[in-house]
Amino acid sequence: MFLVCDDIRSVLLFCERLWLAVEKDMRQHHDSPVIERLLRVFHYVYFYLKHIKPKNGGVFRDGGTSVHWKLAMASFEDINAGIRDLDVFVREGSREFTPTSIDKALKNIEKKLRRAKAVSKANGFARDAMESDVLVMWKSLFDKPTEDLWTVKLKRLGILNDMFHPLYKERAEANSFVRSISRLNICN
């Protein structure tokens, strides 16, 4: 997310693709504390990006494609695998953090993204300010759940609507345009 933060639409597309891929891979995604935490992290970073302005007169695009989209997508499978493995680890309830598959996924991601480390700073975004809050969100994953299922579902629906509504609206408008063009019967 930090890598493609020069364009909000790219952040949303990245989050949506990862969300759908993770949900597809998970057998019990509706009960997963990892999936709920991932969604909350998405929403936190998205909300933060919507309300800040780039420093040094930098350009903040919305509606285009991030200049680092290909690099972010190159690490996509490793991120997805890491989340899937973390979910298995959390479900087993173990407190010792030794799964090598998660470590391997993290190393692959770090290796691929190392060359773009200064991207968010160059774009004027205070990554460090968000990073500590995001880490706290993930660390609390190992605490016992205190929210009831109804509250979690309501939060999930609210976050999904807030984040992905712009993409759904964009697609609906595009589909509406295509249908109106096809009704003109220009070819007949």
From TrEMBL:
<dbReference type="InterPro" id="IPR009568">
    <property type="entry name" value="DUF1184"/>
</dbReference>
<protein>
    <submittedName>
        <fullName>Uncharacterized protein</fullName>
    </submittedName>
</protein>
<dbReference type="Pfam" id="PF06683">
    <property type="entry name" value="DUF1184"/>
</dbReference>
